[in-house]
Amino acid sequence: MEEQRYEEWVAVRTDRERHLAELVLDRPQAMNAVSTRMARGIARACEALAADGDVRAVVLSSTHERAFCVGADLKERNSFTDADLSRQRPHARAAYGGVLALPMPTIAAVHGFALGGGFELALSCDLIVADPTAVVALPEVSVGVIPGGGGTQLLPRRVGAARAAELIFTARRVAAEEARELGLVDQLVAEGEDRAEALALAARIAAHSPVGLRAAKRALRTGWGMDLAAGMEVEDAAWRTVAFSGDRAEGVAAFNEKRAPRWPGE
């Protein structure tokens, strides 16, 4: 990525190149374990990205060679009182909720360990690209809690209720090949190529209408859990958003003129 924006938040940075943004987990000394400060950084980065109308796709990646993110910082939590844990909770929810709420398509680039909250960050993305070193799990019950970053809701939507229950109740770790077979990740690529492939996929996505991409994501996400009739109404509302937009007019014109579209993003 050519342009880098290092913000005041710690352990997270956003890199920008044209219409792509990369949200980088950058706390290698702790294998990207999510501390309170890191959670605040993720939330603030997502808030900034969500407000940036020029961004069409986001890749969530890691600087650590052996881990995407190992989940909550249990060393930090070891000294927590109940009051401390309660105070941290809004920051954790804002971090995971921030990734989930990003209005543009999101792709997680996963290698190494993606455990607990780390896997929940990936699950909060629309697509997950992984390499053969990836190991994913929601092991929270093994330390006396439950997934609290969306895992109990997002995992069943990927793999079904029974499979999600088995994975959460047993806390077992799933290696990359099985993860692909179960649908825990969407693409399995060559070792060390997860980030490059995720960025390439994001670039292909970002070539399309920004209005269309956001409307399609809104329809997909809003329709979760609805019956078909309600979902069709959601789709119709999203269609109306784009049907009378500048992007629709430009897309039709570009098709007929046999040229690449110049999306106004309106």
How would you explain this protein's 3D organization?
The structure is a single chain. The strands form 2 sheets. A 7-stranded mixed beta sheet has the order 1-2-3-4-6-8-11, sandwiched between helices. By secondary structure, the protein is of the alpha/beta class. It contains 11 helices and 11 strands. Mean pLDDT is about 90; it is low at about 1-10. The chain has 2 domains: about 5-205, Alpha-Beta Complex (2-enoyl-CoA Hydratase, Chain A, domain 1); about 210-255, Lyase 2-enoyl-coa Hydratase, Chain  A, domain 2, CATH 1.10.12. A hairpin with a 2-residue loop joins β2 (about 10-15) and β3. It is globular, with a radius of gyration of 19 Å. Keywords: Lipid metabolism, Lyase. It comes from Streptomyces sodiiphilus.
Question: What descriptive keywords fit this protein?
Answer:
single chain, about 270 residues, alpha/beta, 2-enoyl-CoA Hydratase, Chain A, domain 1, Lyase 2-enoyl-coa Hydratase, Chain  A, domain 2, four-stranded mixed sheet, 11 helices, globular, disordered N terminus
CATH topology of the largest domain: 2-enoyl-CoA Hydratase, Chain A, domain 1
Give the averaged pLDDT, no decimals.
92
- Tell me what portion of residues adopts beta-strand conformation: 15-25%
Q: Portion of residues in helices?
A: 40-55%
Which structural category fits the helices and strands?
alpha/beta
Question: What's the topology here?
Answer:
Layout lengths: L2 E3 L6 E6 L2 E6 L10 H15 L6 E6 L4 E3 L4 H4 L4 H20 L4 E5 L2 E3 L1 H7 L3 E4 L4 E3 L13 H9 L1 H10 L3 E2 H7 L4 E2 L5 H13 L3 H13 L5 H16 L2 H12 L9
Parallel strand pairs: 3-4, 4-6, 5-7, 6-8, 7-9, 8-11
Antiparallel strand pairs: 1-2, 2-3, 9-10
Pfam families: ECH_1 (PF00378)
Protein name: Enoyl-CoA hydratase-related protein
Organism: Streptomyces sodiiphilus
